[in-house]
Amino acid sequence: MIEVIDLKKNYSLKDQIITALDGVTLTVEAGEIFGVVGLSGAGKSTLIRCINMLEKPTSGTIVVNGQEVTSLPPAELRKARQRIGMIFQHFNLLSSRTVAQNIAFPLEIVNYPKEKRKDRIAELLSLVGLMEKANAYPSQLSGGQKQRVGIARALASEPEVLLSDEATSALDPQTTTSILELLRDLNRRLGLTILLITHEMNVIRQICDRVAVLQDGRIIEQGTIDELITRPDSLISRALLPQFEKQTISSEATSVTITFMGEAADQPVLASLVRNYDIDVNIIAGNLQKIGKNRVGKLQVEISGKQVNAALLHLMNLGLRVEKN
Ligand SMILES: Nc1ncnc2c1ncn2[C@@H]1O[C@H](COP(=O)(O)OP(=O)(O)O)[C@@H](O)[C@H]1O
Ligand SMILES: [Mg+2]
């Protein structure tokens, strides 16, 4: 759905050149939720503004839904932009317009038939759960409600792609979760492809299928959340999974950290280990959490007995990550 190839973007500021993007390549598949995470200044907004054609790349290619947007003449560019919805951190609503009038705005621009507008607005309001706020003004809404209006407005022209620039960064954790759930719901119901950028790991944890880490204008890590979590040295794995302190209870035992996900997280792995090998297991620390669709567990244990190595091998053969501490 979105293909970015070797994208570079420089800004000139007085006599200085700032490299905001330095050769970014990524592919967002149709129907997925793709997250780009990075610190402030990493180039996230620049990337999204280039994809949305609000910013002209210095070099590189961007293809959205089969159309190379980097080489479109102005009239076609406007049309292509309507296929891309966008939501923002500060909502960018028009304060003098009601909720319904804000959502009507993009419909007016594309000359959506007047007689059908009311129905379309009602449909969009119901999609984001704001039916009863049609005539309210933005100042009368909570942050979460404002973002729902932003989402309804972004979806008015039936885009295939929704771009989100820190859309939950101004919201409290509970409201963030409800907005992320709405986005996941829209992704499923409408088949909407979502590219979201964020500096919050929690957003990545809650809804992304795949993620890229952007640092100083370059992607330094990219993959599905599942893949990255099983790589102990990945930044995503280190950021999403708890880091246990090294603790030793018994100096004779072997101390290991076991990470399990998917099916293995739901199996009584340790019980079967104790039953099948002549060992003792002492749990030192543990954590079980939901990351995207998966439950991911991490355990620090001390194992002692004659068959420790065979037991560890057994765990590895089950597909668990086992690290000796
Ligand atoms: N319009 C601009 N003019 C000059 N420099 C800019 C402009 N927009 C962004 N930059 C610079 O480009 C870099 C990346 O910025 P940005 O894309 O906003 O990062 P992020 O969204 O990850 O915080 C920063 O160093 C920023 O100062
Ligand atoms: Mg930004």
Description of the structure:
This protein has 325 residues and is an alpha/beta fold. It has two domains: 2-237, Rossmann fold; 243-324, Alpha-Beta Plaits (2-Layer Sandwich). Helices cover 34% and strands 32% of the residues. It has eleven helices and 14 strands. The protein has helices at residues 44-51, 74-82, 99-109, 114-127, 143-155, 173-190, 201-207, 225-229, 235-240, 269-276, 308-317; strands at 2-13, 16-28, 33-37, 59-64, 67-68, 84-88, 161-165, 193-198, 210-215, 218-224, 254-261, 279-291, 294-305, 321-324. The strands form three sheets. A six-stranded mixed beta sheet has the order 6-7-8-3-9-10, with helices on both faces. Strands 2-1-4-5 form a four-stranded antiparallel beta sheet, covered by helices on one side. Strand 12 (279-291) and strand 13 (294-305) form a beta hairpin. Helix 3 (99-109) packs across helix 4, helix 3 (99-109) runs parallel beside helix 5 (143-155) and helix 5 runs parallel beside helix 6 (173-190). The longest helix is centred in the middle third of the chain and has 18 residues, at 173-190. The radius of gyration is 24 Å and the shape is elongated. The structure holds adenosine-5'-diphosphate and magnesium ion. Residues 2-241 form the ABC transporter domain. One of its GO terms (biological process) is amino acid transport.
